[in-house]
Amino acid sequence: MITCGDDFRTIWLKDGDADVVQVIDQRRLPHEHRIHDLRTWQDGVAAISDMCVRGAPLIGATAAWSMYLAALTSKNPIDEVRAAAGALRQSRPTAVNLHWAVERVLRLVENAAPGTDIARLICSDAQAICDEDIEICRRIGTHGLTLLDEIAKNKDGDTVNVLTHCNAGALATINWGTAMAPVYFAHRQGLNVHVWVDETRPRNQGSQLTAWELAQHGVPHTLIVDNAGGHLMQHGQVDIVITGTDRTTRTGDVANKIGTYLKALAAHDNDVPFYVALPSTTIDWDVRDGIAEIPIEQRDPDEVSHVYGMHQGNPCTVKTTANDTPISNFAFDVTPARLVTGLITERGICEASETGLTGLFPDLATT
Ligand code: MRU
Questions:
Q1: Residue 26: pLDDT over 90
Q2: Pocket test for ligand 1, best of 54, 100, 140, 204 (most atoms within 8 A of CB)
Q3: Are residues 265 and 300 in the same domain?
């Protein structure tokens, strides 16, 4: 399997069986490439909360497809879609695309004319959400590429070193990714680009997903432990940081995988530009103060006390802590807008501020 490219998708209807939605089981990568079937909306909720699928845009798309499954498997499709919506909203609290997709599909269903085939209606909207996401990521890639081009010019063609955290590549979206789209586009056009990939404890999205994705495409990259970024920046080894985000406030604060804030602080201290790539579906126009208002997901302590990997050819999980070690597992943090050099969106690059965002998206910025 190659991630990205014109045919790649992270979620799709099973060939020849429109009752089944299929996804890549991201819990198994990079050691196993398993396709996971979703047959009920409850399967969709479980796929999101167990992180079989993850990444804000893919979580949103999975929610839409789960509502399709709800309509398909019930004699009272509208009631079932409402029930699914309630459970989906609770499945992961931080990524706002989830709420965006649930509300979009619900609105469609509530406004449907009597006698409408609800499952078919949601099916085409879920498909549209996926198609739109691919186009959005393509545009983010094109806009972000201008930044990498500029750095390459200033370095006379020397390697452009990008640092990223978590996985905001094709696997986190439907295709291309957000933070990694500019990198894929740069690599495709022959730019000398190299990515420092943060391991991203505790779920290791960097080592298990980003590094794997980049390798699939032959993009030069190096895995580093989460705490190495500051050291690399002090030694001129990072030209730009690009991360994704799960929720961006209308004032430009960004919630992303835990540890992103520390990268932004180190970047600020070392004059390294810190950019965040996002589709407009990730903007929460109702929130102004990210630190005070964005709910931060706390996950199972087992994610911290155990690591997943391979042993003698078999995938396995091992415990690394003592039995009685108290554990907290905050999954996200918020980087304040003042530490963000710019936001790379599908409509261009803007300042991380209300002026910047409302300037690009006047049609979405409800007062
Ligand atoms: O917990 P995850 O793996 O869903 O967290 C994902 C991230 O933090 C990504 O960087 C973010 O969703 C942006 S994805 C385009």
A1: yes
A2: 54
A3: yes
Distance 9 CA to ligand 1 centre (A): 17
Q: The domain spanning residue 338 has which CATH number?
A: 3.40.50.10470
pLDDT the model gives residue 347: 98
pLDDT of residue 366: 78
Residue 246 known to be catalytic: yes
Ligand 1 site residues, Cβ closer than 6 angstroms: 54-57, 95, 166, 168, 172-173, 178, 205, 244-246, 256-257, 331
Beta strands in the chain (DSSP E): 11-13, 21-24, 35-38, 160-164, 193-198, 221-224, 240-243, 247-249, 254-257, 274-277, 283-284, 306-311, 314-319, 332-335, 342-345, 348-350
Complete DSSP assignment for 306-359: EEEEEETTEEEEEE-S-TT-----B-EEEE-GGG--EEEETTEEE-SSHHHHHH
